[in-house]
Amino acid sequence: MNNINIIKCNRNHSEIISDLIIDLLKDFNERSGSSFVIDRNSIIETTNKLIDRETFGCYVAFENQVPIGLITISHSFAIYNGGDFGIITELYVDKQKRSCGLGKLLLEKAYEFAKQHNWTKLEVGAPNKSEWPRTIDFYKENGFEEKGPKLRLNLK
Predict the structure, then answer these.
(1) What is the pTM of this model?
(2) How far apart, in Å, do the first and last CA atoms of the chain sit?
(3) Taking the CB of the first residue and of the last residue of the chain, which one, N or C, has fewer CB atoms within 10 A?
(4) What is the pLDDT of residues 28-63, one digit of tens each?
């Protein structure tokens, strides 16, 4: 990989972020049979709602000024977890750039963001282990431990 630059994003990067999130969702839909609704305008709107929050971080990796990956991290807290901690909410690397070390570089940005906010832990909601074993292995190779499945209830 040549000329990699990872930047902390702001509102000016909303369309770039949204396009990478769309790629992430398409990949997820294709590989796991998920049915994420992909509405670019809605994704841009959500990005704009989150991007200015102090406890939300988004980093995009560029190679020769072309966006090739991103990571987002946000704040959470729980008594069992010792208070404040961070959650990696999205991590995406372009299919052609995977297994080249870019994911690790993006994780390092999330670690820096967490440390700036004095968070002592990071969590990630990883996909199904049987469908995405490389993803689980990636996180484990970078120090994460399996702590069980995550469940979700949509309130809309």
Answers:
(1) 0.92
(2) 42
(3) C
(4) 888 777 777 899 999 999 999 999 999 999 999 999
